[in-house]
């Protein structure tokens, strides 16, 4: 393993045990590319949120978020052009060049970070879904390209999985995000539940927050179901890894749903034993999915959010 891949591996194993565990199911070449893509994504996320591997830095940055974003965008554009000056940007340069990932996709992720920096308000479900695409759906697209997928219909399924992951994240972290001044729940849904963004952190309004959050998890389930039909398009080891991640993240949403008003007493997680169980179940399900792909036609993605510039297949 060369220095850039090793550096990227260390980042993923410190920053996301779930993703690191799933990545072990990939073949060596796919795993190395997944590590490198993750390293750049993790770095960008940490820079915008002034964190270190997802945790608040003790010595906060004195550089304003907008300036940090501009620097990230400049370095990302330079890396895509083949001029990287840091390990994480060298990782991005290698991944985009090797797998011919269009420049628009890394820049779409940067646009997602811009939404956070600008304090974007999400009025409708479509607004929230657009955010989910830019911060997670597009990562699914790039991961699918690393695995050799180029068919637009299957790339949309990969986007669906990323969107489902992010909707689950929003549900799990809704109180913590609101305390930090970030609200991703659609304002329209909040109004329909009789509350405002300011009410999310009010313990007395917790039942209404649960209702809106469970509505979001219902939406996530639509995307999880759609994403399942993209699995047979992947090589079997890659399909197993993605199926495991899908099951584990969906389990997080299930636990949030089950815990109701207590879902935010502590951050919901899936235990190591639970992850192992979901991974084993994924192995069985992916065998069936591959066996049936020649005879089962995936249902249409009617009503699901679709990547800009691509069809709705």
Can you put this structure into words, describing what you see?
- There is one protein chain.
- The chain has a two-stranded antiparallel sheet with strand order 1-2.
- It is mainly alpha-helical.
- The chain has 2 domains: 1-102, Orthogonal Bundle (Farnesyl Diphosphate Synthase), CATH 1.10.600; 121-313, Farnesyl Diphosphate Synthase (Orthogonal Bundle), CATH 1.10.600.10.
- It contains 13 helices and 2 strands; from the N terminus they run H-H-H-E-E-H-H-H-H-H-H-H-H-H-H.
- It has helices spanning 3-15, 17-23, 28-49, 65-80, 87-98, 104-117, 125-146, 152-172, 174-179, 187-192, 206-228, 236-259, 272-292, and strands at 51-52, 55-56.
Distance from first to last alpha carbon? 38 Å
Task: Specify the structural class.
Answer: mainly alpha
Count of discrete alpha- or pi-helical segments spanning 4 or more residues: 13
Could you list the spans in which at least 5 consecutive residues all have pLDDT below 50?
Answer: none
Shape: globular
Brief rundown of the structure:
The protein is mainly α. The protein has helices at residues 3-15, 17-23, 28-49, 65-80, 87-98, 104-117, 125-146, 152-172, 174-179, 187-192, 206-228, 236-259, 272-292, and strands at residues 51-52, 55-56.
What's the layout of helices and strands?
Blueprint: H1 3-15, H2 17-23, H3 28-49, E1 51-52, E2 55-56, H4 65-80, H5 87-98, H6 104-117, H7 125-146, H8 152-172, H9 174-179, H10 187-192, H11 206-228, H12 236-259, H13 272-292
Antiparallel strand pairs: 1-2
Helix pairs in contact: 1-2, 1-3, 1-5, 2-12, 3-4, 3-5, 3-6, 3-7, 4-5, 4-6, 6-7, 7-8, 8-11, 8-12, 11-12, 12-13
């Amino acid at each position: 393993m060369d220095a850039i891949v090793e550096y990227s591996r260390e980042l993923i194993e410190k920053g996301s045990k779930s993703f690191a565990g799933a990545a072990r199911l990939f073949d060596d070449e796919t795993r190395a590319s997944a590590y490198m893509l993750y390293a750049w994504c993790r770095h960008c996320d940490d820079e915008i949120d002034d964190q270190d591997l997802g945790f608040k830095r003790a010595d906060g940055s004195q550089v304003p978020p907008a300036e940090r974003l501009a620097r990230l965008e400049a370095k990302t554009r330079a890396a895509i052009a083949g001029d990287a000056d840091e390990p994480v940007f060298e990782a991005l340069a290698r991944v985009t060049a090797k797998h011919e990932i269009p420049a628009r996709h890394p820049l779409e992720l940067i646009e997602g970070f811009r939404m956070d920096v600008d304090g974007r308000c999400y009025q409708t479900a479509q607004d929230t879904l657009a955010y989910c695409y830019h911060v997670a759906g597009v990562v699914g697209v790039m991961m699918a390209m690393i695995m050799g997928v180029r068919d637009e219909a299957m790339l949309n399924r990969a986007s669906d999985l990323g969107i489902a992951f992010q909707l689950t994240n929003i549900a799990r972290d809704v109180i913590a995000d609101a305390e930090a001044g970030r609200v991703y729940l659609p304002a329209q849904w909040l109004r329909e539940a009789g509350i405002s963004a300011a009410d999310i952190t009010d313990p007395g309004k917790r039942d209404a927050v649960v209702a809106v959050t469970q509505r979001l998890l219902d939406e996530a389930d639509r995307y999880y179901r759609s994403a399942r039909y993209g699995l047979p398009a992947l090589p079997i080891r890659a399909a197993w890894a993605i199926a495991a991640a899908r099951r584990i993240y969906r389990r997080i949403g299930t636990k949030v749903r089950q815990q109701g008003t207590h879902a935010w007493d502590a951050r919901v997680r899936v235990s190591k034993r639970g992850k192992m169980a979901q991974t084993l179940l994924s192995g069985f399900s992916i065998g069936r999915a591959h066996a049936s792909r020649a005879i089962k036609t995936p249902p249409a993605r009617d009503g699901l959010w679709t990547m800009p510039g691509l069809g709705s297949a």
